[in-house]
Each structure stands twice: as C-alpha cells, then as structure tokens.
Design a protein that fits this description.
single chain, alpha/beta, 4-stranded mixed sheet, 8-stranded mixed sheet, Rossmann fold
C-alpha cells in the first residue's frame, strides 16, 4: 500500500489527487501501518516538522532500512537529510548524508524561490528516465539540500546557485520541487517513483 504520511504539515490533498491521477491508490494516514511505499510531503519549517513526526522518526528509519521505497517532497526531501540550519540547528532523519542550508540572499534574487525552473538531469539517475533536459517544474522553498556525496544528486536546478532538485540514496528518493504541482512533467516523475 502507498502511504502518504499525514504528520500535520503536508500538502496532502494535492499529493493524493496526483497519485490517483497517474493510476495508483494510496492512503493518507498518520502511521506507516501496511505501507509498501512511503511518501513524506511537507510545507513549513524543518524543526516543527521533525517535532510533529516525533516518535515516527525511528519507524521511518526502520522502514527505509528494509529497502522499501521512500519519497520526500519539498520539506519532505529536506527531512531526509541529517539536519537543517532553519531557525537554528535541527536534526533530521539522516537517511541521506548532508545538510539543509538557506538559499543565498545576496545574489539579487528574491527568496523564497517560487515558480518554475528547469531541471538538469544526472546521467543514469532515476528521474532522468523518459525525461527531456530543461523541463520545468514548480518550486517553493527558501532552503536547499547540500549532499555530502554528489552521487546522491539525481537532478539539479539553479536559483542563484546550483542546488539538488532531486536526490536518491538507494531506495530513498526526494524532490525539492512539487511534482504534484508540476503538470505533466511532475506526473511522469511521480509515476516513476510509484512504479519502482
């Protein structure tokens, strides 16, 4: 069963509708019961999200350790990392080595990064399959994930700096952008995860 985790900070209805639109069923629930795939959406602040996830953090780590697929979306991707600088230092799920940092504010661009930006795919990455270089997806974020190991970067985008737009470490995947709000490109990317 595909589980969309409801921990009180997600864009749940949009994600659920997008999953259904690409031909899959899912359950939006506050636990991981009977999950075969897990999606962690997110809108809001890192520390508050980890606080709400609370005791589920160890359960999510154990779930990922079994090899079952996990997808983090936007804040959900950030939570997959070791921690974040947002509003002070906060620990994350530590499923992918690296840290969440603020986008630079000294390059003449408004933060948050809000809108459509092109993707640049890493050769052979999960997200590249069926994709065309430069396709645009929708972002809303003020922070980005810095991967400790560049091999975990599946795609990049640029907003003042180049940053990981999608990541993967084994069965743990993430998108900084919102596939559920990224039209046909996002639907194809979401379906790629759901089909794995």
């Amino acid at each position: 069963m595909i589980v969309v985790l409801d921990y009180g900070m997600g864009n749940l209805r949009s994600v659920e509708k997008a999953i259904q639109a690409v031909g899959f069923d899912c359950c939006v629930q506050t636990n991981l019961n009977e999950a075969s795939k897990l999606i962690i959406p997110g809108v809001g602040a890192f520390g508050a999200a980890m606080e709400k996830i609370g005791p589920l953090a160890d359960e999510i780590r154990a779930f990922a350790a079994t090899g079952r697929p996990v997808l983090g979306i936007c804040l959900g991707q950030q939570l997959l990392f070791e921690g974040s600088d947002e509003h002070g230092k906060n620990d994350g799920l530590a499923l992918i080595p690296g840290w969440v940092k603020y986008l630079p504010t000294d390059v003449g661009l408004k933060v948050p990064h809000m809108g459509w930006s092109p993707l640049h795919y890493r050769e052979g990455s999960w997200i590249q399959e069926g994709s065309t270089e430069g396709e645009e997806v929708y972002f809303v974020h003020s922070l980005y994930t810095h991967c400790a190991d560049d091999s975990h970067i599946a795609a990049t985008a640029t907003y003042g700096i180049e940053f990981p737009a999608a990541v993967q470490r084994d069965n743990v995947w993430g998108t900084q952008f919102h596939p559920e709000k990224s039209s046909l490109v996002g639907m194809r990317i979401l379906k790629r995860f759901l089909s794995c």
